[in-house]
Design goal:
This protein is of the alpha+beta class. Among the domains are: about 60 residues, no CATH class; about 110 residues, Band 7 domain (Tetrahydropterin Synthase, Chain A, 2-Layer Sandwich). It has 7 helices and 8 strands. Helix 2 packs across helix 3 and helix 3 packs across helix 5. The protein starts with a helix and ends in a 26-residue tail after the last helix.
Length: about 290
Amino acid sequence: MRKTTLLLPVLFIVAITLLSSIFIVDEREKVLVLQFGKVVSVKNEPGIAFKIPLIQDVVRYDDRILSRDVDPLEVTPLDDRRLVVDAFARYRIVDVEKFRQAVGVGGERAAETRIDSILKAQIREVLGSVSSNDILSTDRAALMLRIRNGAIADARSLGLVVIDVRLKRTDLPRANLSATFDRMRAERDREAADEIARGKEAALRVTALADRTVVELVSAASRESEIARGEADAKRNAIFAAAFGKDIEFFEFYRSLAAYRKAMMGNNTTMVLSPDSEFFNYLKSAKPE
């Protein structure tokens, strides 16, 4: 009975020691085994692992893809128009031993601070080398790729790999919005005025060309009509001369009738002539023989 009483505490201590020497590595994490603060083992594969109780410690790190939102920061592009940029990054711990050496006991909290510094530096460097129009355009994939590539090189010393960097928002500071909108409105008004002036100039050129064309066409038509009328009058006079030359008395009679018709037009025509005027020769009755 005495032996049993002594054996139970020993078995309990042994069981506690065995249990404290066993730990489980989850498939979503990587584990470092530390002995007096120094890395003695790295556990990358999921399953059961062992350590020396009381001497060795276990530090766990997330093996999944992590996301980090960068606080909004102001950048100054080439054209000195300040912009507020909001970005985020996705990264992963690929070398836990190097990661431990870089961040120490701070762990992932310290890594986030270092990641923020790397991303802010790369964002300022890349966006500061282009104009604000390039940043505000919809095609920003090339800029985000440049930021990611720069962050990859800087994060390698931390045992991290940067998978992706995205610019979520690029806006003007609130203090600059009104001035920027006024400048944009003035630029658009100036462009509109230039377009209107060019349109009026083109309209004047077209109108002048059309007026000149009209004058030329009317002049040509008038000249041709006068030529045609002159030729027709000449032919008519020739025909009249030929016809009237055959009977002079009939010609004089015809001319008198035409003179009567022109002289007696209208309702209030009054003529004062001598009764023996030659104008009435063909209105007199013939004398009986």
